[in-house]
Request: fold
Amino acid sequence: MLKRSLSYLNGVRLHVAGGIALLLLAAVLEITLPWPLKWLIDSVFGDQPLPGFLSWLPGFSADGSQLTAVFSIAMISVVLGVIHKSLNLLSQLWMIHAGNRMVQKLRIEALDQLYRLPLAFHDRSKVGDLLHRSAYDSYALQSLLSGVFAPVFSGVCISIGVIIVMLQIDVALTFITVATAPLLWLNIKNYEGRIAAHSKRFHENESELASTIQESLSSVRVIQAFTMEARSNRRFTKQTEESVQANLTKSVAELSFGWVIGLIMAFGTAAVLWVGARAVIFGTLYPGDILVFLAYLGMLYQPLNAFSQGAGVYHSSTSQLKRVFEILDEPVTIKDAPEALAPKTIRGDIRFDRVSFSYVADQPTLDDVSFHLEAGQVLALVGRTGSGKSTTASLLMRFYDPAHGAILIDGLDLRSLKLSWLRSRVSIVFQEPFLFSGTIRENIAFGRPGAGDEEIELAARRAQADEFIEKLNNGYDTILGERGVNLSGGQRQRLSIARAFLKDAPILILDEPTSALDPSTERELLGALEELMTGRTTIIIAHRFSTIRRADRIGVFEEGKMVEFGTRDELMAKNGAFFELASMQEESTAGKTPPASP
Reply:
């Protein structure tokens, strides 16, 4: 996990190297900070001579005043402190910059992977969970660099330097100080597993919260319509309580870990005080020596305390990064073959050859489906809900691959074609059009981002959308709300049709494009849809038979099987499944027996 995290240093190595160099300089300088205190105690207030390299300081000559000497030492402390803090500041800025770039790279990789993962993965995943992983858990890279690596590296450098200087002052006191190290190590081993487990549980609960919020906000109309606000709030309250308890448990483990570290440090400090004070009393150490040693003791224990806090950050960060890496490690099953083809031309001849597919094992959604649609023809797929119509369209877009059989365009298996080539040659108009937050112009041009204004406006006119667009205050530059909530259903569908016109793909899929509209709006759109179908190989997934009047062939699905296939007249003459569906629809709309042809 750590090795994989460090791979994101590519591109920011210079910033990290600069930050490390500054940390090293700051650590060296920090080791000198206690010495002005020793000079003050032993050379200003005592009778010890000042080190030769400082003899030039004002106040330390034979006739110098004591106050001047104190001022000189105070100024040395100020200069050392300012330089030390400045080095730390610069190193932190460089590390933060590097960490943010690493997070940016990880987030981009995670989102790119989510784009490439098959719909089967997204079908079983929660949007809120994926959002939390890619947007928030990825920030753990920054925490690892700035909250673990930087303080640990700085602490190690300071600890090594401090121990070397301590040995120069008094070997016995140094050994007493270092004797606490095994106790600290045992404490770390005791707590690290618990902290890691609690961190993992907490972040999983936070991800569940994000999923609930996303789901609730995206379905707020349904919640209000069914007066489910109180129930939804109770569900959310229960989840927040679980998250609070998980966080408290994690915090107790981390604080207990820090408390034990502090207790060990307190006993170590007491032991040094006892032994050091005895040495001063018996004259084997100067008072300044023991003060400097105690200052170094604090400097040594400070990194150790940082190590204890860093252990909590480390386990929390690695738990989060593991969740992000799970996305990156998810296999991309729908991908280009090594020698994928991208033909220069396409006729649009479509063939399903004994295709079978299941979303769930042993529960076939399509079973041995075969049909042939010549280029430029229109095929209508009809049948009851869940019979396999939309799945057929999804397989043609290669959102999924069939378990058995093959799907061919112009005689080429879809799996031998480049995905980008295939999907750029197919336009789809969904039952519920999806519009993005942005202008009407941007939404129409979604399939062709480089399209000019004239092309966009022509597509809108062909989709019969220009009339309502021009009535808006800002016309094509009108900002749409999320999912186009400030437009009617018919207006949203017109923009979806305009998008298909602009894409101008040779193959068209109409996935029940009018089933959510009222009959009047449907009649208005049928003309635009029929123009859109002209000259294209079209598959219509039909709920209302009014949309299939131009169909050259009709395929009837029942429980994943295509039970009938032919022209409208042929199927009506059979008096079979299609006749029954047509009769039921006619009775529901007109209340009478259907005529010979729907």
